[in-house]
Amino acid sequence: MPWLSYKGGEEICYIRNFITPPQNALDVNPTPSPRKLNEPDYKSLRRVMSSSLAIETKDLGRIYKLRGSKKETRRELVALEGVNLTVERGELFGLLGPNGAGKTTLIKVLTTLLSPTSGWARVAGADVTAEPESVRQKINMVSGGESSGYGLLTVRENLWMFSQFYGVPSKEANERIEALLEMVGMKDRMHTKSSDLSTGLRQKMNIVRGFLTEPEVLFLDEPTLGLDVGAMRDVRRFILEWLKAYKERTLLLTTHYMMEADELCDRVAIINKGKVLACDKPSVLKQRLQKDALFEIEVSPLNGLTQQMLVDQPEVAKAAVSETETGAKLSLSLVEESALARVINLFTQSDVKVMNLSKREPTLEDVFVDLVGRNMAEEESNGAG
Ligand SMILES: Nc1ncnc2c1ncn2[C@@H]1O[C@H](COP(=O)(O)OP(=O)(O)O)[C@@H](O)[C@H]1O
Ligand SMILES: [Mg+2]
Known about the structure:
Elements: H1 9-19, H2 42-47, E1 53-66, E2 75-88, E3 92-96, H3 103-110, E4 118-123, E5 126-127, H4 132-138, E6 139-143, H5 155-165, H6 170-183, H7 199-212, E7 217-221, H8 229-245, E8 250-255, H9 258-264, E9 267-272, E10 275-280, H10 282-287, E11 293-299, H11 307-311, E12 316-323, E13 328-334, H12 339-349, E14 354-360, H13 364-372, H14 376-381
Helix pairs in contact: 5-6, 5-7, 6-7, 7-8
Bound molecules: adenosine-5'-diphosphate (ADP) and magnesium ion.
């Protein structure tokens, strides 16, 4: 067939392998030999596992071997360590963490593209290492920012081709393609060549590709990465609508957008440097911080007033200061609301004017700061991983 011979041929192999693989075809970083010492009897453990789980991992780890120019310079990078997660069928589960946290690595292990170095994982009732083909038949995966799709083909042709790799009957595939494109507001683009699509529309097409095979478990790695606000909103709404229509399907998405995880996910695992730090409903995670009162204050230039001077006030638990065009923005976490009066007093003494003051609810960003001691952006610039 002609499309096998042109540039995109490699990816076709990839998609094919996804269904009928040579084992670990994409594992560019071969797995070190499995641990032997003190290894628990996973087989007997698996027997007692509940089949209602869509995803289950136990002490899952992944180490990358980094190749230096000389043999002695070889290093190991621990990308995942001791990950224990369970995701129920029907859940929309989020993996939230900064760049380099290990989110993509975890998705690759769960989708059988990468072998774990330690521990085990089951997806849709099958073990990712022992039964990869069984897992692959029941899942699908889309990565944000991927440039998949064949430019010469139209949107409909691209999607139809992928549906055929999964053995969806042609007539049914066409019906699903129309319905899904309608849902993402792209029906009028059905006959547009995919090379003529904007980034946002191409990403929507890729996402449709993920849903097209009606997978038991769908993995979306940063589905809204690089999209404009409108396209982001469309993609999020589409995800929620689809899950409403297919209640028993499970969706695991990764994101480094706090609001996205908060807005979409039933439960969220906060992951940093390969470890899961907390896992619960967003509301429960935020409740941990509800004991502190959070205030945002916009002020005129600080006139020498420092973050430390604010934190030194009794009952001020945390203070973050950022400069703005007109002065500064302060984010305060107060053990007692009465501390606010002392802070305001401090402003008056330094001739700093309060322009805006609001009390706010905690966000997942606050949860991350509480767990890690730094916000996500700082953690990234400090070279997580
Ligand atoms: N193929 C690879 N070889 C070596 N290191 C890798 C490879 N892929 C990812 N890493 C490293 O593993 C860590 C986790 O990466 P990744 O899973 O991509 O994180 P995230 O998706 O959360 O941004 C990072 O430090 C990254 O540099
Ligand atoms: Mg990633």
